[in-house]
Amino acid sequence: MDKTGAMDATVGARLPPGLSAATTVVGVIGDPVAHSLSPLLHNTAFEAMGLDWVSVGFPVRSGRAGGALAGAGALGIRGLSVTMPHKDAVAALVDRRTPLADQLGAVNCVIREDGEWRGDNTDGPGLVASLRRGGRFDPEDRRCLVVGGGGAARAVIAALAAAGAAEVVVVNRTRERAARAAGLAGPVGRVGVAEDAPGCDLVVNATPLGMGETSLAGSGEDGKQSPVWPVDPDLIRRGQVVVDLVYHPAVTPWMAAAGERGAVVANGVGMLVHQAALQITAWTGQEAPVEAMWAAVDGSAGGPDPRV
Ligand code: NAP
């Protein structure tokens, strides 16, 4: 400061544009985290909202989430997005959980409130919001099939049931895990098989299958590798909505095959954008600028319009 109390211009000049000592900080914890699109989505939202907030990535190793939460609380960090491998651990560490985070035993977002961490899970509601965007697909009274029984599948299954789906069929390699996941949908959930797909309005792949090399397994009699699909594309019918939660590549071979059969296909960018938008609202109490957030990742995700 100079004698008049004005800030030394050289100090301000060293700060990145728009940031100051008063800037509110949020971030994402995960491992790895350097390629996370969350800070891009959050910062796009803050700029569009005219808020003096910033989001950054914090690499946090497995087993260190407790230390990260304690440190973030001490530093006045307002909220964190939580990604692999910390979602289950953070659910056990927070002071309070929303009913959905409690049901899933997984947290993808924490909010600082009255000196405590509240844990929420916006993954499934994010997918449902992306499906509903522009009136494209409402799960209410519709039959849905989800492939997978892991964290993403469980979030989607619970959200589809909460959105009023008539049925949520769960197909998974490990049947016992499928049964547990289907239980999250209550009376509308059941374990099924891929052959149930033609009778469903929505088919969601919540496994890494269907993306590039990981989908290649086994050798046929001709010695060639054949793709292992989440659901055989020959079971997909015209007009069905088919979503692959994967978004790298922007169009998976499975999405392309489903599109060739006349399905309306989308990748996982919608879930990514809308789960982040719900986090912004949880942190700021304001509506998130979803269209600006979509515009920020449409380019980085590449490929054709991934929206349903
Ligand atoms: P996860 O908890 O590890 O679960 C993986 C699921 O895939 C399990 O149900 C597993 O079956 C199944 N699976 C894995 N390899 C398989 C194989 N070779 N054959 C058959 N099934 C197989 O993972 P997750 O967190 O749920 O993530 C699943 C996918 O969703 C990932 O591709 C991830 O990138 C994507 N995702 C996207 C978003 C988004 O915002 N778009 C968010 C989260 C996740 P078993 O139960 O039999 O092991």
Question: What is this entry, summarized?
Answer:
By secondary structure, the protein is of the alpha/beta class.
- Domains counted in the coordinates: how many? 2
Major beta-sheet overview: 6 strands, mixed
Tell me the series of helices and strands, N- to C-terminal.
Answer: HEHEHEHEHEEHEHEHEEEEEHEHH
Question: Mean pLDDT, as a whole number?
Answer: 89
How many DSSP helices? Answer: 11
- Please count the beta strands (DSSP E, at least 2 residues each): 14
CATH architecture of the largest domain: 3-Layer(aba) Sandwich
| CATH level-3 fold name of the largest domain | Rossmann fold
What topology, given as strand order, has the largest sheet?
Answer: 2-1-3-5-6-4
Termini Cα gap: 54 Å
Low-confidence stretches: 1-14, 300-308
CATH class of the largest domain: Alpha Beta
Radius of gyration: 21 Å
Ligand inventory: NADP nicotinamide-adenine-dinucleotide phosphate
Descriptive report:
The chain has 308 residues and is of the alpha/beta class. Helices cover 35% and strands 20% of the residues. The chain folds into two domains: 10-121 and 271-297, Leucine Dehydrogenase, chain A, domain 1 (Rossmann fold), CATH 3.40.50; 125-267, Rossmann fold. It has eleven helices and 14 strands. The strands form three sheets. A six-stranded mixed sheet has the order 2-1-3-5-6-4, with helices on both faces. Strands 9-8-7-10-13-14 form a six-stranded parallel sheet, with helices on both faces. Helix 7 (151-162) links the parallel strand 7 (143-147) and strand 8 (167-171). The radius of gyration is 21 Å and the shape is globular.
